[in-house]
Design a protein that fits this description.
Elements: E1 2-3, H1 8-20, E2 35-36, H2 37-47, E3 69-70, H3 75-81, H4 88-102
Parallel strand pairs: 1-3
Antiparallel strand pairs: 1-2
Helix pairs in contact: 2-4
Length: 103
């Protein structure tokens, strides 16, 4: 399953910018790229120096029909706020930094 994960602080900052700019309408907020949930957690664990052991299953094995790609197109919000949304590598780096600062 692929997603466009953001860290909460970055997402909230984008929402505040939207409010300050009086934006209305529907906007996708997510990372510039999509990454599988598996790859996201494996990369985050590696950056944090942890081993990641897990049992992998596919959403395709699930009896409920749902999309396997929940990646978002963020072009609209980038244009409206004149910004570049973070990519997944940057999100992972930020989350790792936040985890380290809590310890």
């Amino acid at each position: 399953m692929f997603t466009s994960t953001l860290d909460v602080k970055y997402c909230s900052n984008i929402i505040l910018q939207m409010i300050e700019n009086n934006l209305s309408g529907t906007y996708n907020l997510g990372s510039k790229d999509s990454i599988s949930k598996k790859d996201f957690i494996v990369k985050l664990a590696k950056v944090l120096g942890h081993n990641c052991n897990f049992l992998e299953t596919s959403v395709k094995a699930n009896k409920i029909k749902k999309s396997c790609n929940l990646g978002l197109n963020v072009n609209k919000i980038e244009k409206k706020l004149n910004i570049n949304m973070k990519d997944s590598k940057s999100v992972i780096s930020t989350i790792a930094k936040n985890v380290r600062s809590r310890n």
